[in-house]
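Holo prediction. Input below; ligand is V47.
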Amino acid sequence: MKQTHKHIQSIVSNTSNKQLQLIGEKIINNQRISFDDGVLLFEKASLPYVGALANFVREQKHGDKTYFNRNFHIEPTNICVFNCKFCSYSRLYAHKEEGWELSIDDMLNIVKKYDNQPVTEVHIVGGVHPKMNLYFFADLLNAIHAHRPDLHLKGFTPVELDYMFRKAKVSVEEGMKILKDAGLQSLPGGGAEIFHPEIRQQICEDKVDAEGWLHIHKVAHTLGMHSNATMLFGHIEKYGHRVDHMEKLRQLQDETGGFNTFIPLKFRNKDNDMSHVAETSIVEDMRLYAIARLYMDNFSHIKAYWPMLGRQNAQLSLSFGVNDLDGTIDDTTKIYSMAGSEEQTPSMRTEQLVTLIQQAKRQPVERDTLYNVIKDYSNIAYNETIAALSN
Ligand code: V47
Ligand code: SF4
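Structure of the complex:
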């Protein structure tokens, strides 16, 4: 049900905290909130307050529409020269016998498994292997594109790109052009973590920094490509670091308009060097989604990544600003299950995802990578029992 202007106005007017009331007024009047407003929301605002505001914004932008797409992942390797403390997935290059590395043929065989399936996107991301260079990945993209030209190729974080461009001794502009010519169409949002050096130096000091990450996305946007942005939250960062991260993304989005969606990623603490750090509560997670919706006013979409958040929580997030769920992934995406996500088999058939969205009283819409509508599921009802049973 659409949240009315009158309803949200009464919630804001009845708030006893004057500062929170002023922020609420700004949001109702479509004005941008400031850095300090963002921090204040994290410090003082209750979940019902930010939740109601975020839901208002979400419904103004999208009504009940909740997007998902059908994609699959390819992880070329889990061997990595970097050593991010939160990572449960990579094997250091020094212990490369414990990891995997796929050849172009191996990866093409993964693509071929989807030959008769209506997937629209492949998401290629993995560790940073020193032997898998720029030209290897250009060959991979060419091979996938030649086999299945309709598939949107989304791949490589600035962490991988920065390394492969430096190794090939090409500029970011040259490197991005080589990959674009080979068929790359979008960049995923990974590798952003927390931009602020106070935190970045503690959790992933040796990989590309904030400026490098933002520059690569900017160049991609300049070449006409789109991209996503993530934020790894709920570990050792403070509220100010979260807002700083969102502020940097909001500024770049003002310049280029090239980001599609913002994806907050909840830190999971299993089997990594930060296992002693407690995970955040569901209330804190939902507050974060809501505040992200309020702060990122120039991002059309806020996405929940259900293999990391869990299906139930992803469903709940649809009432707190989220209007986009990451897809029906049918392979075994290891980075998340290895970090302690309760989603042991991160695959969800379309009918389950549609049911999950309908149970939240939202309207499921299948999209492609660029948010063109493929199918509106408003009038399709699946048998909830069957959908639940195959959960
Ligand atoms: O950058 C690693 C995160 C990211 C952990 O663009 C962890 O559509 C939580 O960016 N706990 C990679 N998170 C995944 C990613 C992504 C996922 C889905 C969709 C898209 C998209 C992008 O995974 C890394 C890092 O932030 N990650 N370890 C962990 N223990
Ligand atoms: Fe390597 Fe990425 Fe893991 Fe960092 S998060 S260690 S860059 S695979």
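The first strand starts at residue 65 and ends at 68. That is the main takeaway for now.
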